[in-house]
Amino acid sequence: GPSNSLQSVLSVVDDYVFDRRHQLDTRSEVAINDLDISDEDKQHADKYKPTRARYFRKIMAKLDLPREGVFVDVGCGKGRILLLAAEHGFDQVVGLEISPSLCEIAERNVANFRENTPTASSIEVVCTNILDYQMDGSETVFFLYSPFDQPVTKTFLKMIRQSLNDHPRDLWLIIDEFRFPELLEDDELLKQSLVYEYGSAIFHVYHHLS
Fold first, then answer.
1. Which terminus of the chain, N or C, has less C-beta within 10 A?
2. For residue 152, how many other CB atoms are within 10 A of its CB?
3. 3-state secondary structure of 51
4. Number of helices and strands (H, E) in the chain?
5. How far out from the chain centre does Cα 101 lie?
6. Could you read off the pLDDT of 96-139 as tens digits, one per residue?
7. Tens-digit pLDDT profile for residues 32-48
């Protein structure tokens, strides 16, 4: 409707202003075939398409998330959400990205962002396949914009459950455009706490209380 259209237009403007203010490159999409990853990994991946800055700020305003612990953006791409999470005040922010070229762009964006906001939180970009990532129990928020297909998503959720069993803690999982909500239907550890729509975005939020 008209309200969603206005929200989307404002979000496009916000993205432009955010990139321009911090001298960033986060807006342009990258097709799957243009990613510098293996053909096998391309079978499971989605294109780089960032969550809009305005959408992220709106979902953060809806949630009362702890700022301590580690905020992890899974499939961080060019790093937009990392910068917004640092701006929001999370103590530590980590981005996981499989594409080396996107990691390089994200690191440049982080460096430019730090020049304008030297007091921002710690931000780290890790170039890795999500299936190789070792959770250490410090992670308190996982954010993702549906970066991979159902089999990889299923394995990733299994990794989270194992981490919660190994390191009991409060944890939030926030998914923009969740394509496989059936994977968490009636889940024993990750309970759905919110479905939030804004503009063209639909966020599914899951929460585990230790």
1. N
2. 17
3. coil
4. 6, 7
5. 18
6. 999 999 999 999 999 999 988 888 889 999 999 999 999 999 99
7. 888 888 888 888 888 77
